[in-house]
């Protein structure tokens, strides 16, 4: 019997109450939002539940929303996959923009180690409990986080690139 979205939603609401919300089908993936402080037990539950069996972490990434209120300026997005039923799940967790941090899931999915390091490297999100949280692609001496929207994409003197086309506005128009 195929794993249905309602079954996933019912199990999660039964276990996590109001800490999981905003369930919706987005194209071919079932999505939800979760409270940041419940991400570890949520991911563990999704992996270990004998019916849900989301045993594969496909992706983990960050998003910067500088125009949102401070408590929702960053999002961490987790993509999980149940290979038995070929079911995918997206979990979005919003975190504080002044001190972006969330607990690591590298103890649950070791593959998240590099994904969390990349998110730290580009967005500055601190993954609490990560075994080796340091830059992975940029230089260690770099002080900024280049995927934050306040970071300019190119040299401001260039005329062949326009930040407006990438969802960024320039301050000296």
Kindly report the name of the CATH homologous superfamily.
NADH:ubiquinone oxidoreductase Nqo5 subunit
Q: What is the CATH class? A: Alpha Beta
The count of strands amounts to: 7
SSE string, helices as H and strands as E: HEEHEEEEHE
Q: Radius of gyration in whole Å, from Cα?
A: 18 Å
Q: Which of globular, elongated, flat, extended, rod-shaped describes the shape?
A: globular
Q: Reading side by side through the largest sheet, how are the strands ordered?
A: 1-2-5-4-3
Instruction: Name the assembly state.
Output: single chain
How many alpha or pi helices?
Answer: 3
Beta-strand content estimate:
25-35%
How much helical structure, as a percent, in the residues? Answer: 10-25%
State the distance separating the first and last CA atoms: 58 Å
- The total number of structural domains is 1
List the helices and strands and how they pair.
Layout: H1 5-16, E1 20-26, E2 29-34, H2 39-48, E3 56-64, E4 74-82, E5 87-95, E6 101-103, H3 112-123, E7 126-128
Parallel strand pairs: 2-5, 6-7
Antiparallel strand pairs: 1-2, 3-4, 4-5
């Amino acid at each position: 019997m195929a794993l249905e979205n309602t079954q996933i939603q019912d199990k999660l609401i039964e276990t996590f109450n109001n800490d999981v919300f905003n369930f919706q089908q987005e194209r071919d993936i079932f999505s939800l939002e979760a409270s940041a402080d419940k991400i570890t037990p949520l991911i563990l539950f999704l992996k270990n539940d004998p019916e849900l069996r989301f045993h594969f972490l496909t992706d983990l990434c960050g998003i910067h929303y500088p125009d949102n209120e401070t408590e929702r300026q960053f999002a961490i997005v987790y993509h999980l996959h149940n290979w038995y039923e070929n079911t995918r799940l997206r979990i979005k967790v919003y975190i504080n923009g002044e001190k972006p941090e969330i607990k690591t899931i590298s103890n649950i999915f070791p593959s998240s180690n590099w994904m969390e390091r990349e998110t730290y490297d580009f967005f500055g999100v601190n993954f609490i409990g990560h075994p080796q949280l340091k830059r992975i692609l940029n230089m260690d001496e770099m002080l900024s986080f280049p995927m934050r929207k306040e970071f300019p994409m190119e040299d401001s003197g260039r005329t062949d690139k326009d930040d407006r086309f990438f969802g960024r506005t320039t301050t000296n128009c």
